Amino acid sequence: MALSEREQRLLEEMERNLLQHDADVVAPGANRGLSFGSLVLGIVVAVAGLGLIVAGVAFRAPWLGVVGFAVLVGGVLLAMRRTVPDSPEDLAGPRGGSGSGQSRASFMTNLEDRWDRRRDERDERDAG
């Protein structure tokens, strides 16, 4: 069943938006990772906050529970904090490595080429 002209335009607009969004996600500055130190420290702080909440309930001190909740939220935020590499070398990984940055870029290039070929084949099929 063929798509109407309106549906085709809508689909093409959705594809453009998706490709734009993918470009934003795959942008060089978007490659951020979790810091192991921040993760461990955040977990320790969150557990301490949970302990304060339990202590607040045990000692019937609501203010201690509120402080514990604030510490717990702070610990979770600290654990989820993402770090950005300071330099492009940090982004590429260790020197002399396997070149995973290059293989990742070529992987994305291959995917884009395959996508373009499919679209071209579909356009030729629809035109012919």
Write the layout of secondary structure elements.
Layout: H1 5-25, E1 33-34, H2 36-58, H3 62-80, E2 82-83, H4 88-92, H5 100-127
Antiparallel strand pairs: 1-2
Helix pairs in contact: 2-3
Description:
Helix content is 75%, strand content 3%. The protein is mostly helical. The protein has a domain of 51 residues. The protein has a two-stranded antiparallel ribbon with strand order 1-2. Helix 2 runs antiparallel to helix 3. The longest helix has 28 residues. The protein is elongated. The two termini are 16 Å apart. The model has no long low-confidence stretch (mean pLDDT 78).
In short:
It contains five helices and two strands; from the N terminus they run αβααβαα. The protein has 128 residues and is mainly α.
H-E string:
HEHHEHH
Mean pLDDT: 78
Output the structural class.
mainly alpha
What oligomeric state best describes the polypeptide chains here?
Answer: single chain
Number of strands: 2
Helical amount: over 70%
Keywords:
128 residues, two-stranded antiparallel ribbon, elongated, 3% strand, mainly alpha, 2 strands
